[in-house]
Amino acid sequence: MQSISPGSYPKFAGLELIHSPHFPADWQGNAITCDFRAHRIVRFGISDLAKSAPAQAGYTTKEMPDVVRTSDVTFRPIDVKLGPDGALYVADWSNPVINHGEVDFRDPRRDHTHGRIWRITMKNGPLMQWEDLTKQSTDAIFSLFAKPEGPQNLWQREQALRVLAMKPASQIESASREFLRGQPDANRYAQLNLLRSAYYGIHLDAFIPLAHSINAQQVRESISGLSGEQIAQTLSLLLSQAATAETVFADRPEKRAAFRAQLLSMLEAYVEHPHPRVRLGAVRVLGAIPTADSATLVLNVAVNNAGADPFLDYATWLSINDLAKPWTEAIVNGTWALQGREKQLEYGLNSIDPALAGSALAKIIGDEKLDFTKGPWIDLVGRAGGPQELAKLFAAYILFYGPECCPGRDVSRVKIPNLSEADAQRILDALLAAARDRGVRPDGELAIEKLYEAAPEKLRTTLLQLAGFWKTPDAPTFLTAVAGDKSAKGPQRVAAIAGLRALGGAEAVTTLTNLCSAEQSFGIRRTALGALAGLKLHDAIAQVQSVMHDAPNDAEALPAWRQLLGVQGGIDALKAKFDDAAWSKELPTPVLSSALKAAREKGHAGALLATAIEAAGGKAAATPQDMASQIAGMVKQIQLGSDPAQGELVYRRIGCVQCHSIGGAGGKLGPDLSSLGASAPLDYIVESVFDPAAKVKEGFHAFAYTMKDGSQLTGIPTRETATEQFIRPGPAPEIPLIKANIVKKDLVGSLMPPGLTGALDNTEKRELFVFLAQLGRPGPFDASKGSILRMWRLYPGSQAEQAEHAEKIDEAVPAFTMVDGRLPKEQFATAIQLVPNAGNSVIASAQFQIAAAGKTRFTLTGVTKAWLDGQPLAVASEPNPTPELTAGVHTLAVQVDPKALPETLRVEAEGANFLGNQQ
């Protein structure tokens, strides 16, 4: 689920929602938080997307002018709270050094003594009179909740609930019953509001019987005349009630069943309510009622929504996962009908844990009336199916693509009318995924060679890999023959080598060793060397010098080094070789350069290897003592002054933008640097570049994952599911690792290699560090404004339709602007060189989000032809147009002639948030 705050922001500290009569009306409901790195307090307006078109169940925010901003480096706001007088109070840590755990906690510049609390008030605005709630009666406190909005001041509301929590439960229950009895029918919402408030942690046991005394019919009557928003708020009460009832009625099944039936009868109407948050609330309540009927209602909502509302989509995903067990059990025992519910099945089984989906899949695939080529069933069997389900897929392949190849296979249960080549490929991919990722293969005897001979050309590479993973009896001779056949097509030979690695054993090692010989093409030798390293590293290292000596260039050599370093023990084994000067001198300089690049890609883990490679190339490495003196010396030089604008050019030239982002534009491998200069002392900035492994920022520690097949993948963990761990191995997109195949996880540290500034002279280094030290400070290097476009996607003119919608296609190339949003002609031209088939026209595209409908003013520089959401934008008659826009995501596209680029391209849109890396 994406953030409701479009754009790129640093990590904030503290949060308060303004609900206080002391502040202006347009501040009510605003979110106040602290950007302690940049010495500022930030305000966000919150817009209700339920009031937009199309309506959605969530909210979106718009950054408003800062509440406070200062250049005082000791101002570190870390929390904000409303007080009893309605004013806003700020906790200021008052410390010039922050940097958290990645720096020395004993740094002498840390302030261990001072701290400040500030009070922010509206000029000439009356403050509220403080009341001592501890001296008020229970009835008086209850009366604060009589109005639907509750107490005016958020502080008063929270403290009132706290005071109630301090009173005896028996007193609370009796007093609340008396209070509710005195409320008129027209004010039933106030009753529900009180109960809802009570469910946030105070005397839950006392309120359980009280809440249950209001049954579903009473609740329905109470809220029948309420607005959609009020109904949605009330559903939060029902969510607590439903979850609690499952425990309270655990030993009274009849009472529990009746309670469930009451709620389901009401929620059946609310899942179709016109207000989106009512639908969302109903879906989440259904998730707390563990029945197949609840799952049916949730899945119907999911299918009807079809992703149109991402907030509702997330709610349905959460609820169907809550209901996965009763739903799959109903499928297995036949009480949940399959016919006519194909879309619901597809959504549900794609959403839940594959381990739970397996039993349901067996039931579904066992249905002979089902054409499993239509829908997600083939892919799902690959992810969660057992041997019998996989056997049915394999039988279908055999029936249509090799009935004479496997006469012992029973294909009589396959009732599908035909199997296209595309669906056959899907079956083979599913079988391969099951074997590779889960170690599961079809029941019965398996053979591949005859199927391979009968298969269409496009299907053969997957069959070759299957032979290795299935370890079929015919695999050793069959794979060896294909891998060594110089007349075979390259992709098939490569697939056969991959099959040999999966197969393993002495025969495979012998074959792969032979394929490293000079008789073969370098491409085959390189592939065989990597596969051999995965099986027997010692034998592969013995072949490295002869194979790599013949690499035609550094680009061809680089994949081989990456493969070798991706095997457990590969880094240490290669370092031992590079320490031998006689061994190293046989490798050409371009090959050494590619080895150095591969070692540096490993970050701290490859640092010693990189040093050995540099020494082999004749370059002396700095000693640890040299490093300390380099840092101190550079800090002194920087203090003499330099040009940060030139430093920004250096930053981009050496490729920092590939791994780091500024203002949401750039790579994701390293930390965002938007507020680096405002948060980190100069010496820490220098050290982080010269010696990246010395102090690694939290969340950016890399790990080396050793897999069952002996491979070792290094990357920063990003997210995980029940079955997969995703990592970011480099500037490229994240990749998934199957958890069941991970055997070891070792901390590596930083992926940023040392020595990145080695090619810079002292002037360039000073300029770079002065630029980094300015980031986040007020001025031209302040990246906090999301209204400035900082990332374009460049498309060839032939892809105009895709560009007008900012579609992610292979031809699209990112282009990052300067911090202030300028894309100078020189940098623009460099980026365009990477656009394939650019021709006479290139289209630069970007997406932005509008929080609330209205007019948006664009300030355009260098734009002569543009489209907004696919419609022409009249920039010729109005260079700074102000179109009327709806709330939501929009796309701006600009056409340029590569031979006549503008001196500068720049776009700013008032009230917009450009999405940058979120595109």
UniProtKB/TrEMBL annotation:
Superkingdom to which the source organism belongs: Bacteria
One function term, GO molecular function aspect: electron transfer activity
Keywords assigned by UniProt, alphabetized: Heme, Iron, Metal-binding
Pfam family, one: DUF7133
Keyword Heme: yes
InterPro entries in the cross-refs: 6-blade_b-propeller_TolB-like, ARM-like, ARM-type_fold, Cyt_c-like_dom, Cyt_c-like_dom_sf, DUF7133, Haem-bd_dom_put
Keyword Repeat: no
Residues of the Cytochrome c domain: 642-776
NCBIfam families, sorted: CxxCH_TIGR02603
Name recorded for this polypeptide: Heme-binding protein
Gene source species: Chthoniobacter flavus Ellin428
